[in-house]
Every structure is written in structure tokens, then in C-alpha cells.
Design brief:
Helix content: 25-40%
Oligomer: single chain
Structural class: alpha+beta
Amino acid sequence: MKTNLLYIAFPLLLSLSSLAQMQPFALQEVKLTSGPFKNAQDVDLKYMLALNPDKLLAPYLIDAGLPVKAPRYGNWESSGLDGHIGGHYLSALAMMYASTGNAETKKRLDYMVDQLAQCQAKNGNGYVGGIPQGKVFWDRIHKGDIDGSSFGLNNTWVPLYNIHKLFAGLRDAYEYTGNKQAKQVLVGLGDWFVNLIKPLSDEQIQQVLRTEHGGINETFADLYILTKDKKYLETAQRISHRAILEPLLAKQDKLTGLHANTQIPKVIGFEKIATLTGKTDWSEAAMYFWQNVSQTRSVAFGGNSVREHFNPTTDFSQVLRSNQGPETCNSFNMLRLSKALFLDKNDVSYVDFYERTMYNHILSSQHPEKGGFVYFTPIRPNHYRVYSQPETSMWCCVGSGIENHTKYGELIYSHSANDLFVNLFIPSTLNWSDKKVKLTQRTGFPYENQSELVVETTKPQEFSLNIRYPKWAENFAILVNGKAQPVSGKPASYLAINRKWKSGDKVTVRFTTSTRLEPLPDGSNWAAFVNGPIVLAAKTSTTDLKGLFADDSRMGHETKGKLYPITNAYALVGDPATYLKRLKPGSSLHFSLDSLTLQPFYEVHDARYQLYFQTFSKAAFDELKSRLKQQEAEAMAIEANTVDRVNCGEQQPEVDHNYKGEKSDSGYDDDQFWRRTRSFITYQLQNRTKAGNYIDIQALDTIKPDAVSFLINGAPAEIISAEGKTIRLRATDSEVFTLTIAARNGTATPRFHQLRLVTK
């Protein structure tokens, strides 16, 4: 739906020019003044300043052969993804400086850019990167030696994804702070990459793009914007992943089973390229993707994915069961896509989704007092989240996390050539320097349902002030200098106030909200309570919050506490007409629901919680509870018997188990992931308690022991039993051991689905 402008009766009507292209304000022009977003920004700044730039720079200095000034960080920064946080840190420093003017962030940014420039000069060919053995790796790619899968390219962990963070960080350093040296390093890096892929055929480039590569096509489109050199725009199109683009062009949903965050940045790139080339079909593909993900694959708080992958749109049961719910990186990128489409299409529905996700997922993904970022946000009832720590945690969601809370001012306001748009109700000030207009917004939303806008201008001037009438708002009212104005129209539009504004003019916006039950997109009987745009949840307990603040282990971002039975969760039973009536309103968006207290989800921390509730008639509840209890008991018995597990073909489980392989591919068939090989694959299994006695291997095809070799630490494994699609091996008593699966005679192995190290 395109932006609708509803006119309030003033002598001067809004002209058609207000429908001109929407433009964002620079972060420097918008300042947060109070409220939960300002707090989140302040807490993020403390976390950022607790990080050591020299540790983040170490991978780049090591690769360039320069002496390091501090040892590199551990965790993901020293296990294959070395350097990726450094790129994110540049972006975060740049945006935090633009948003706050904090001098230390600018000092650190300038220092890091200078050090990166020295690395680039030492390399001598424009390259700078922190990827382990980067020069050897890139030389293989340049020569066309390519063996890639979804996250491993020549047995290197997502190298293009890694270097994309540096491309984006250098771009942001120049865009937000004007650091000219950052632009020089960026252009040199871009030229190196153009030369790197010059010998490759389009087929070889598409083979490289099978591996996660972030939004590298977008950054080359940005290089074109900065330099007007067409070779960068041509490169942006050349490194756009056709396997994702072509189904979207055809309006075909081929997303189920794909690694979710791998795809979203590609689509941001498609949209950016479309705005530069006039490829309207690419923009329509981006719109189709956004519609699919935001409306059919996202839960109430705006997040999507289970175990990092898109689940079927018709079945969210995996999301409900898993402790690995929607990933914060996904929402970080969906906000970027929503913003891009809003500015391009002038469609207010993109702001509706943006607001929902920003309040409920992004704001909730940082601890509001201690700091620390969340990777997975489970919707499983009675589960919890894990928070990062500056010295231990170097996950992807830490990189995007330090960026998330720097830029809350980016879409509170926007403008066309002559007119101003208020998109979000967040306490802030806007300095519209081009018009010499200052706007102050005072609001306690969402705890109070009104906002006050005060105009300051050097001289009276005429423009239209357009106020978003949100989809969730009821009884919307506007007063100008205390006088009520006639309002007509419907939600999901703008109300335009036309007048000659003078200093001191005050606009008051008032509305009401109500609480509703919002079901999951699959139509199941699970629903969340939502008030206005705010998702409500209940703290259920503070027991067994194992690993609440992450250690430095490879899988520290996952919860370690036990899963409580879903059948024990609170359910809404009886006549559906009574469900909402059970809520007893308190103060500050708190509601009583029998023994539970519902409150904004972003307030819920350091606790297990319930966000989704099952709804039943009484008869259906009794029957289903009995059946679910049996299913739950069987599932939990399997987990109790499991010491370690690998879901083959899923990105993070394979990364966490140090996957290596050659001539291997992976896929998703019949709602199951798999991996096979014509050479070998290896996984590193953890048996720290030495309780694991057997390795159970499941495949989607029949396993023939005479066609596949199984080795443990290089020695042939003892086969205990083999039947159909399963095989059991005897485990070693080593705390850590390597399982190798090798094809005999170059024949493809079965599609392996899961490995479990079990006690019995």
C-alpha cells in the first residue's frame, strides 16, 4: 500500500510535491533525549568502549605481517571468523559518533582506519583482511580453485561474509564521519576485489556465491555511489546470487530450509542495485521477499527462523520447540531492508513492521543494565536467552548488536523536498538544517498514548507536517496549539498538517490502544498478547538459567539450562471470547493473567518467560494435553540420552563442530537438512563427561557400510549395528574426537541428516 496523505483542514492544502521521494535525515540531525531507546544507546556505548581496538585489529596485522599490539580476541575471532567484529566495530563507532558526538568513538575509529591503511600498504595490492591464511585462500579463488558449500569455501569459514563486514565498516566510517582515509582504503579494497574475480567466469562466481557472503553486492553498489565508477556497479550485479534472485523474480517461494540471514543481505543488495539501474523487477523481487518473510515467516516480535533457518510457513512447531529461536542478525537486516523499501516506495506498511521489530526484538536483544547481546530469542514457553560479554563473546549477533543500538534515530523522522514526516513516537529532537527548523518530540510512549511536537524556526515558513497514523492506533486525535483538528481517514497512513509554522507552535497527538491476541502465521492455536505495537510476555521463573552470561566456548551463545515441558506452560482454555477478558490491567502496560504478570517483552530479562500461549476449548485441551505429554516425554528422553549432536547441513551446528570436507554438498528435503560427500567430511564431537558410548548416525537414504568408511581419530570405527538409514558406531572415551565419513571410490555417500553421541 502506498503512503496515503490525509489532509487536516487548513487554508493551505498539501501539494502533490509531498509525494516526492522520501529522504532520511542524517543521524547527526536526530538526538534521542530519554526513554528505553536512549538507555539502550547509552548501555551500548559502554559495551563498545569496553572492547579493545588493538585486539580487534590483531587479525589484520597478523595477516599483513605487522607486529600486533595486543593478542586477538578468542571465541569466533580466533577460530576462523577472525576480523569480522572489527568491521562491525567500525560501523558501530561511526554511527555512535554521528548519533551522540562522543569524542572517544571518533578517536577509536580514526585510529583503526589508520591501522587498516598500514596493513593495506604492507600488503601492497589493495587487500586488507583478517581471514586466516587470507593470501593463500584468495590466491586459490583467483585461480578458479573453488570448493564451496553454504558456509565453507575451500574449508574457510564464510570468507566473503567476513570481508563484507570490513567493506561496510569502511563505508560507514566515511559516510557518517567523513573520514577520507576510510574511503581511500575502501576504494583500494574494492579495486583488489574487482581484479580478484576478473578471471572467473559467471558460473564460477555463482559457485563462490553459494557460500554465505553477506551483502557484498550492496557495498559495491555503494562504491559506485561514492565514485561514479561503473565498474563497481557492474561488479555489484555480477556478484548478485542468481539462485536466490531468480525465484524471487518469478514470485516463487523457495526459502524454506535456507539459512535465513544468508539471504536477507543479498536482497538488500538487489534493492540498492534496482534504485541505481532502474531494474524494477529486482525491486519487485525485494518487495516479494520482504512480504514473504515479514508476513508469513515472522513471529509477533518481528524475528524469524529456527536454528538459523527458515521454517515452513505452514508449520511453526519447530520454532516453538527449539531453544534456538529467531536470530537477532536476521532482524538487524530486515530493518535495513524495511528502511530501504520505505524510502524507495513511500509505503508506510514498511514502517509498521520496522516499529514492531525495533521495539520488540532489537530493543529486547540487549540487557538494559549490564549490557550484552542476544543471539537466539526462543519462543519456547518457559525458556530464556543468553547475553554476550565483551571479553568472551564474538558472535555475529555481537557484531550486529553493537550496531543495532547506535542508530535508533535513523527513521523517527524523514522528509521530502519540502515536507516533514513523523514516523515514530520516540522522545527526540530533530534539527532540519536545510530548513532551519528544529522539532522537539516529548512522549512517554508506549507507557502513555500521546506525543507532543514543538516547532522552532528562525522565521515563519510554510511546509506540511505529516504524522503517521499507525495501523494499531485507535481514536486518533490531533491538536494544534491546543485546538482539536478534524481527522478523517484510516490507520496505516499519514495525517498532513498544512500551515505557515512559527516558533512555539505545538502539535499534540493522542490515541488509544487495546490488547489483542495475535496467532502465529501458520494458523495454529498459539497466540501472543500484543498491545498497540508492543508484544507482552510473562516472567515464569528464574531457575536453572545456566550460561545466562556467555563464556568463551564455541557454543556459548546457546542456552545450557534444561527444557521445561511445553505441556506445563500456561494455556488459555475455554470460550475464545473470554481470553482477553481475563487480563486485568495494571500500570505501565502491566496486566495480570491469573498468577502471571504480562509486561512489555523488552522489559523481561534474567528470567524464563512465556510469550506465546496455546488456546483450547475444554474438550480439545484434555485430549491434546494427553497426546502432547507423551510426545514431550519421548523427545526429552532422547535429549537426556544425548551428550552431543550435529544436525548435518545446518550452518551453525556444523561450524560449532569444526566441520571440514571436500567435494561435499548439502540441502533440505522433506523438512530435513542433510550433507553428503564424494570425498570426505569430518566433525569434531565433544564427550567432555566421557558419558557418550555410541554414535548414532541417521541418513535420508540407506547406509551401506561397504560403500562408506567411518573413522574416529583416523582409525576405523567399530560398527555396532547397521539397519536401513541408521548406523551405530562405538565411541571413543576421548573428551574431544574427530569423526570422519569418507566415500569409497568417489561414489556419493547417502544424505546424512544427524549424528548423536549417546549414553545408551
